[in-house]
Specification:
Elements (H helix, E strand, L loop, with lengths): L8 H19 L3 H14 L4 H13 L3 H12 L4 H5 L1 H10 L3 H14 L3 H11 L6 H12 L2 H18 L2 H15 L5 E3 L5 E2 L15 E3 L5
Antiparallel strand pairs: 1-2, 1-3
Length: 220
């Protein structure tokens, strides 16, 4: 018998059809129906990136930080997208409840398991200038310190530049400059066909594959 769907694309399409309905209901402030369709989507694919994303948004809307963090953690295990898309709203919610330490603790644990997450946080610090958490700016400093040009600069005056790069005003100005310089840079690419975009799309406009978008290094 010929397998007419070897990549299980039909199952993937159903998942995203259900996620789209859930998203539409969420935009209409109908959480009950949104949750119903998210659960249907997860029944098709329990590791759907978009389903995790929608679940986190719902918990944030309900100001349930603990559950929101839980979904963010689950998403971080399968995709880097959670760091760029969800951390800004998690930090905003945690600030309101004076619980930023909970979010930071989770990020620190994720970094211990996946040190490469520091790069995602460095990118986030440039994309979102409103974030002022130390763990975000520290990731940017660490990212910069690993670049080739950093070692070249140190050859001239290591003590002076090391002091400068740890200065808050310098970091703030650097973030603003990089944000302006990279504002129109491609930030996501399709893992399937390589199509690049500035903003994330759940479905690639070129090859039509779902959940294939992945962050790329836009400041190297």
């Amino acid at each position: 018998m010929i397998d007419i769907d070897p990549l299980n694309d039909s199952n993937t399409m159903i998942t995203h059809y259900l996620c789209q309905i859930a998203d539409d209901h969420l935009k209409s402030d109908n959480q009950e129906l949104s949750i119903e369709y998210i659960n249907k989507a997860k029944a098709q694919n329990n590791h759907s990136i978009r389903a995790y994303f929608l679940q986190t948004r719902i918990e944030v809307d309900n100001k349930n930080l603990t559950n929101a963090i839980k979904h963010y953690e689950n998403l971080s295990k399968v995709s880097k997208l959670g760091h760029l898309l969800l951390l800004p709203i998690l930090f905003k919610l945690s600030k309101e409840s004076n619980e930023e330490d909970k979010v930071i603790s989770v990020i620190e644990n994720i970094i211990k398991e996946k040190p490469e997450v520091n790069e995602s946080l460095a990118h986030l610090s440039i994309m979102n200038l409103e974030l002022d958490q130390k763990i975000i700016t520290t990731s940017l400093i660490e990212y910069i310190s690993k670049q080739i040009y950093y070692n070249e600069i140190l050859k001239f005056n290591e003590a002076s530049f090391t002091t400068t790069i740890n200065n808050q005003d310098f970091i703030s100005n650097l973030r603003q400059s990089l944000h302006k310089a990279t504002k129109n840079n491609y930030k996501y690419t399709c893992n399937n066909c390589g199509y690049k975009t500035i903003a994330l799309s759940w479905q690639c406009p070129t090859c039509r594959s779902w959940e294939s978008g992945n962050p790329i290094n836009f400041i190297s």
